[in-house]
User: Which sequence fits this backbone?
């Protein structure tokens, strides 16, 4: 029994390491590649993520309208841990999703370098010009996206997109 426990010990720590790769760029640690919300909750990213998440108060009325609209969507987020807009809006986005009781398994988080690229080329064919970019999909088809910053607020822009309202993201002209 003791031998089995020792054999399993290394596997207990697999979830403790970040999913995204952390590199140092200009004396700043940044994450690149596919990541998770849990990665953002770890140092050094938790210094901005946790505060942004905890301090954000989504509009309850809008969140209540969103709850039944998020059930059949998936979202891909392209962000830069080095980017102030990503540091501001990504925690707010996760806060809105939590308020909607949206499961994180419907989220793909891609952390990009300062050239807005990833070693795996996740951005290829995605037309990522600014970060963060939140791309909303229904049945695998892109519905719309929020680019760099919301027009009104994360939750209102999400509601507009998921309600099929005419929504034009930043930088689309």
Assistant:
């Amino acid at each position: 029994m003791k031998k089995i426990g020792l054999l399993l010990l290394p596997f207990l720590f697999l979830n403790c390491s970040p999913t995204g790769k952390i590199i140092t760029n200009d004396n700043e640690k940044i994450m690149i590649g596919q990541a998770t919300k849990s990665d953002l909750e770890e140092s050094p990213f938790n210094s901005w993520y946790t505060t942004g998440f905890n301090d954000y108060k989504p509009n309850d009325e809008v969140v209540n309208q969103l709850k039944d609209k998020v059930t059949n969507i998936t979202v891909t987020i392209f962000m830069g841990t080095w980017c102030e807009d990503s540091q501001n809006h990504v925690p707010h986005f996760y806060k809105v999703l939590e308020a909607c009781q949206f499961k994180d398994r419907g989220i793909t988080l891609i952390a990009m370098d300062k050239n807005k690229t990833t070693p795996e080329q996740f951005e290829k064919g995605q037309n990522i010009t600014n970060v963060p970019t939140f791309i909303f999909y229904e049945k695998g088809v892109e519905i719309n996206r929020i680019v760099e910053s919301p027009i009104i607020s994360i939750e209102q822009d999400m509601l507009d997109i998921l309600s099929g309202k005419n929504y034009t993201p930043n930088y689309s002209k």
Remarks:
- Residues 1-18 have pLDDT under 50 and may be disordered.
- The beta strands are 21-25, 28-35, 73-79, 107-111, 133-138, 141-147.
- The chain is about 35% helix and 20% strand.
- The CA atoms of residues 96 and 155 lie 6 Å apart.
